[in-house]
Amino acid sequence: MPIIGTKELITCDNTDFIHTGNDADRSGFILSVPVFGQDGSLRGSVSAIMLTSALRKLLPGSDYVIVNSGYGFESDQHKMSTALAADSRAFTAPDPNLIYSEVIPLSLNDPRSAWRLWAGFPNSRFDNNMDVQSVRQFELAGYAAVAVVTLLALACWYAIGRTMTMQVEAAETLERRVEQRTAQIQHLATHDILTGLPNRGLLADTMDEALRSLRDDEKLAVHCVDLDRFKPVNDTLGHPIGDELLGAVAKRLKQHAGETAMVARIGGDEFVILQLLLDGNDEAGVLASRVIHALSDEFSIQGHKINIGGSIGIAVFPDDGQSSETLIRNADLALYKAKMEGRGTCRSFEPGMDARLQERRQLESELALGVKKEQFVLHYQPLHDAKTSQLTGFEALVRWNHPRLGLLAPSEFIQLAEETGAIDALGEWIMRRACADAAKWPQPVKVAVNLSPAQFKQQGLSLQVAAALAASGLLPSRLELEITESVLLANNENTLNTLYSLRDLGISIAMDDFGTGYSSLSYLRSFPFNRIKIDRSFVSLMCESSESRAIVKAVAELGTTLGMTTTAEGVETEDQYRLVKENGCTDVQGWYFGRPMPASELHTLFEQPEALTA
């Protein structure tokens, strides 16, 4: 039978127990249980330590007991209450009401060797012990620490959550900005920056989509719109005014095109209107007329009153083309036809127009080559004194000796030269040739040379003229330069400076086609011209219209008052000559006195002064 060894007091420095203020005060019972084999021989023992001094510190009084129910052992020290100790069975299982209750097996081979330590019975004075209170305080401190750590964790969680929220908001803001910027880029890619209208690419896409969705009873009209006198505005008033004018034109086009039509700008002063036709082709003509009328109204840009107008070419699906490219090309051909027939008009596409466009393109390339090869010649029309019929000078008029088309008048290529930029080289050649021819004339009469408004964009125009005079040896007083009032339309400082620099050379300046513009009188005040040339449209009606005679007379009197010579253009009959002379014109020019002729034929006028009329 196992026996219980003697109780010995030992020190257990490595025992893990509640700290009581003295690490060395860790004493207890050593319970040694021998283990015997089946033959009765001693095979070994199992030992356990029961702390005592620590229990005494924590549980003063008889508030703990060590029990072995299997052998009927109960510690004789510090017994619990009699009622509890009398019933050993009360200690056979752990009690949840006790502070500590544990079964400690001392022998694995003996089922009766289960020792139980019971401590802190409910009626004990455990709660009043100072160490226990310290433990409780430690526990409370631990709870507080847990609470603080929890709060810190919550704060960290809030901070992390806030940071993540801010990151999400920043990402959403960035995404919105990217979307906005992408939309702006897409808008810029599909719209004209200056006017905000759809550009050529979006126009083509919209047309393709519209053509696919049209029903059988629907048609689509394409209007190509071109401004008639926009280039002189750019040349004289400057590009900022021209840009603002284009914006005003775009607004006016959208206003008159209506909600169901689309207006696009495809370049320069060219616009396109897409119109859905529900009641036949007449709707296209009605819209075109409305737009032309709207563009003919005056524009007010930065204090300038500007009149331009527009021409329109129309192509209709499916009659004039099946694709967007074909429709736009055919509408452009119709537009070219409208501009060639007088501007401010509308023309619909007709078969055969493509051939005329090809002819124009070929003429453009031939013009550049013609300037390079000097295929041009000058013809001279005489000017005479109105009272004496004496020869006073010649106006140089250029002709193109075209190798394929023959001799072409200025009306057939000058505008093309201005549009393509060939006018600069052509104008310089005309100046040099006219000065060289005039220097050879036997009489010191004047030679008049026309200047295009486009030539005033050159910074060195006055130097170019001075070089022509120097190369020919012609006196500056014998050279007269004719300009139209469109040159002064902008009242541009550079233009005026150029005119004054030309006057300083000793050259005369004449205003050509006087009376056909909008504010000629103000131009006479802005620059002191030497000559006013009254447009042929007034002279041709003098015999039939008293109003025309009154205008000619008023201009002649104005010229006399301002000290300017007045020349009546387009005098073709004796009656016209008599009337311009009677109404005060100082010079005359026209077929009645002589048609334009090559320089080689001018000798007859110098040799036979009496042969002055045709």
From TrEMBL:
<feature type="domain" description="GGDEF">
    <location>
        <begin position="218"/>
        <end position="351"/>
    </location>
</feature>
<keyword id="KW-0812">Transmembrane</keyword>
<keyword id="KW-1133">Transmembrane helix</keyword>
<keyword id="KW-0472">Membrane</keyword>
<dbReference type="InterPro" id="IPR043128">
    <property type="entry name" value="Rev_trsase/Diguanyl_cyclase"/>
</dbReference>
<feature type="transmembrane region" description="Helical">
    <location>
        <begin position="140"/>
        <end position="160"/>
    </location>
</feature>
<protein>
    <submittedName>
        <fullName>Diguanylate phosphodiesterase</fullName>
    </submittedName>
</protein>
<dbReference type="InterPro" id="IPR029787">
    <property type="entry name" value="Nucleotide_cyclase"/>
</dbReference>
<dbReference type="Pfam" id="PF00563">
    <property type="entry name" value="EAL"/>
</dbReference>
<dbReference type="InterPro" id="IPR001633">
    <property type="entry name" value="EAL_dom"/>
</dbReference>
<dbReference type="Pfam" id="PF00990">
    <property type="entry name" value="GGDEF"/>
</dbReference>
<feature type="domain" description="EAL">
    <location>
        <begin position="360"/>
        <end position="610"/>
    </location>
</feature>
<dbReference type="InterPro" id="IPR000160">
    <property type="entry name" value="GGDEF_dom"/>
</dbReference>
<dbReference type="InterPro" id="IPR052155">
    <property type="entry name" value="Biofilm_reg_signaling"/>
</dbReference>
<dbReference type="InterPro" id="IPR035919">
    <property type="entry name" value="EAL_sf"/>
</dbReference>
